[in-house]
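Can't attach files on this board, so I'm pasting raw text. These are the components:
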Amino acid sequence: MTIVLFSVWILLNNSFNPIILIIGVGVSVSIALLLCNKCSVFNQIKLSPKSFVYSIVFTFVFLIELIKSNFDVAYRVISPKLPINPGIVKVKTTLTSEIGRMILANSITLTPGTLSIDIHEEFIYVHWINVEDRDVDAATEAIVNKFEKYLKEIYG
Amino acid sequence: MVEQLLNISAIIILISVLLSLYRFIKGPTSFDRIAAFDTMTISTIGLIGIISYLSGRIIYIDIAIVYGLLSFLGVIIISKYLEKSL
Amino acid sequence: METLKLIGAIIVLLGSIFLLLGSLGLVRMPDLFTRIQAGTKASTLGTMLTLVGIIFITPNWTGKLIILILFVLITNPISSHVLARAAHFSKIKLSDKTIIDQLADDGIEDKEKEKINNNKE
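---
Top answer:
Structure tokens for the assembled complex are below.
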């Protein structure tokens, strides 16, 4: 928590003046001490070289999916017949930690043609702009799996 | 050359803000209006970035950060209110 | 240096075109959820590309612009998710082309509504 706040402070001030650095350390440590009753979500991140490599790979996979999704949206918007076939399907996730699920839901929202609507126990309900399969397992295969294998290594 | 390209992109972003304003005025339900508001504010953040380069003031970036924060909070609070679970 | 600026300006132009496509989708799409999809995705990448282009043009401002990019990347999917959840909860009509709605079929939301009503009483 302290590290996150301190790096935000450095990026915001954009300088390495010693006075600014000392103020930044003081402010971030005191905020972390005051408010850190609930920040146990950060402890679920596994700190190992393997998870570090996996998170870099995940970032690249995510950016590629984001760009693909934009071309998908552009194609659907420009083409005059509006080729959409929408529906709400449910997919299954095996992630257990809170932060892993949050990142998974956000990634689903930003990938081609899907928008996560609700999480209930182990199912995520997804609005799919072009439904290919109504079955739970097949939809899981198409939407979730490409992210889940990386997030499982990082967050467990 | 660079400044001309930036001016053209500022005009394109203004057109897109006008299109979302059309949806904001016409939208049949209030949820459509919130979705249009969300898109409009996010586009305006990009516009503020361009304007801050053209006028050469870094302080506008801070304004963009606070603007994004307020629009995020506004969207979440209004949708929680409409969901009747606030 | 000059070519770097030119690359940045072209990236900004690309981002603004994505923003234009996103709001065009907002106007053309038939129902609320597809509108949210078009709006969220295109506006996220459009704004990110615009700010990345400005990083290329003025490298001195990198820190604040990176914070702004991360902020947009994190908050935009969350707000659209909350909006979609609220809309589905209050039974906004889906478009005629919709072929399946498993969330309404499972009836989870009706139970939550009953719980809220019981709390009010």
